[in-house]
Design goal:
The protein is about 75% helix and about 0% strand. It is mainly alpha-helical. The protein has three domains: about 90 residues; about 70 residues; about 55 residues.
Length: about 240
């Protein structure tokens, strides 16, 4: 049994369809502009025929103008239809992205964690190489100093390099934060709105004189539900209970 395509694969297909419709629209628009140019040219030919008192040329130009005008009218309708197809295709892609937002986020969770781990490892490796570079420079200075008449300042390697200060800043940052969080949603805004909704719900219940048994327990549950979701704790956002 074939595997169901991922949400991203389905979204990519919808976006490709929208892109294909845009290309088709551009092609029809180009055909329309060419047909409009033919109408204009035929109109000029009619005027030129009258100027030359050439009825045969006038008749031929009128036929060309009429044919081009019919084509323009048809292409105008086709361009309008293509515009509608572009809108429909883009709307389908946008609606899919909206309806499957959580699935799309879930599919990107592991790539986000993987790239974070790779970046962290790369930075630590870079700093390790930077320390090795400085160590090698010191060794070179010592060897140069042993050469009769040579001094490390004048004859040794350059005392600094363009990245050195930035690497030191990076090393201080890594010492303060050896690890970084993956680029995943934090949901602070939704969490705040959820708490505000709970406050309003709790206040409304407390104002009511008669409550059903489940409603009597709800204010306490809403109080217990005031727990801030830790950053990067989950992909799906908090939902009201």
């Amino acid at each position: 049994m074939p595997r169901k395509p991922t949400a991203h694969a389905q979204l990519d297909q919808l976006r490709q369809q929208a892109a294909a419709e845009r290309v088709r629209h551009r092609d029809l628009q180009a055909e329309l502009e060419a047909a409009e140019l033919e109408v204009e040219q035929a109109s000029h030919a009619i005027a030129a025929g009258y100027a030359a008192e050439d009825q045969h040329a006038v008749t031929a130009a009128r036929k060309a103008e009429e044919a081009a005008a019919v084509q323009v009218k048809d292409l105008q309708h086709r361009v309008t239809g293509a515009e509608l197809r572009v809108e429909d295709a883009q709307r389908a892609a946008d609606l899919f992205a909206q309806d499957h937002a959580y699935a799309l986020l879930e599919e990107r969770e592991q790539p986000a964690r993987t790239v974070t781990a790779e970046l962290t490892a790369s930075v630590h490796q870079t700093l390790k190489r930077a320390r090795a570079y400085l160590s090698e420079r010191q060794i070179q200075d010592q060897l140069v100093a042993a050469v009769p008449g040579a001094t490390p300042r004048a004859d040794g390697p350059a005392s600094t390099f363009p990245w050195e200060s930035r690497l030191r800043e990076l090393e201080r940052a890594v010492q303060e934060h050896p690890e970084i969080d993956p680029p995943l949603p934090r949901w602070h805004g939704l969490q705040q709105r959820r708490e505000q909704d709970n406050v309003h719900r709790r206040a409304g219940l407390l104002r009511r004189k008669k409550l059903t048994p489940p409603e009597r327990d709800e204010p306490d549950r809403l109080n217990q539900d005031r727990v801030i979701t830790p950053a990067v704790a989950m992909v799906n956002p908090p939902t009201a209970k």
